[in-house]
Amino acid sequence: MGRATVLHDYYTVLLNHLGPSGWWPAQTPFEVAVGAILTQNTAWTNVERAITALKGANALDPHAMWALPEAVLAELIRPAGYFRVKAKRLRHFLAFLMEHGGNMEALTELPHIRQRLLEVRGIGPETADSILLYALGLPFFVVDAYTRRIFHRHGLIPEDIPYDELQAVFHDALPPDVPLYQEFHALIVRAAKAWCRTRPRCPECPLADLLPTP
DNA sequence: AGCCAGGACTGAG
DNA sequence: CTCAGTCATGGC
User: Fold this and answer.
1) Under 8 Å between Cβ of A185 and A133
2) How far apart are CA A11 and CA A207, in angstroms?
3) Does any strand C atom come closer than 7 Å to the Cβ of A23?
4) Of A194, A187, A170, A147, which is closest to residue A6 (Cα–Cα)?
5) Strand C closer than 7 Å to the CB of A81?
6) Where are the domains of chain A?
7) A206: Cβ under 7 Å from strand C?
8) A32 and which of A54, A127, A135, A178 could share a cystine (Cβ 3.0–4.6 Å)?
9) Res A12: pLDDT
10) CATH of A1-214 among 1.10.3720.10, 3.40.50.1980, 1.10.10.10, 1.10.340.30
11) Which nucleotide lies closest to A47 by the C1' atom and the CA atom?
12) How does DSSP classify residue A43?
């Protein structure tokens, strides 16, 4: 059986058990980008506090955030952790955004947008793809630690597979369908939070049926 | 009381 | 090039 079929089975099982996700949890494309940077190696609940603080300061807007001194921005996002680094990363992204009209929509028009995002200090492959897929609506599959963990435990990929190769597995197996990519990645994260955590092979996981018998 | 969370960058060797 | 170290808060 080909990978395309297998991956579609995972998608179907997850969707049947969890229902549609309605991701990414954000109200604007800019908020998606900010959340993508803030959630780097950080629990989402901590990101929510930071987002709330930014909203309270009316700073969840490109020009407003750009106008803040870096130290003030850092204090606002403190609950998200790594707050000094992330304040810099947000400002690097903002500088890039300002060069291109100061709004997220303008980014969609740029050629080689993924490479351009990766050139921004503090934006790596997962953050770039999260922005591309959920903020700009472009068909780039988001690979994260959950994706690698689940599919390695199920024997479909080596544990140390590089990011771009793992992404290629999904790009090769699935049509470039933005809603599909968005929903699939959301389901993977929700499934991992609900069942995986750090323990492999928990019995109540609906994906257990798809596991190769040890 | 550690360990972990929807990563990415740096410096040593 | 590889890889351990660094960044930091809050939940369990």
Assistant:
1) yes
2) 10
3) no
4) A170
5) yes
6) 1-214
7) no
8) A135
9) 96
10) 1.10.340.30
11) C9
12) -
Q: What is the per-residue pLDDT across A157-197, written as a single tens digit (0 to 9) for each?
A: 999 999 999 999 999 999 999 999 999 999 999 999 888 76
The answer to whether residue A71 scores a pLDDT higher than 60 is yes
Q: What is the pTM of this model?
A: 0.96
Q: What is the 3-state secondary structure (H, E, C) of A86-124?
A: HHHHHHHHHHHHHCCCCCHHHHCCCCCHHHHHHCCCCCC
Nearest nucleotide to A198 (CA to C1') is B4
d(CA A208, CA A202): 8
pLDDT at A108: 95
Taking the stretch 41-60 of protein chain A, residues with Cβ within 7 Å of any atom in nucleic acid chain C are 41-43, 45-46, 49
**Can you tell me the distance from the alpha carbon of A81 to that of A71, in angstroms, rounded to the nearest whole number?**
14
Bases of chain C below 7 A from a protein C-beta are 7-11
Peptide bond into A66 cis (omega under 30): no
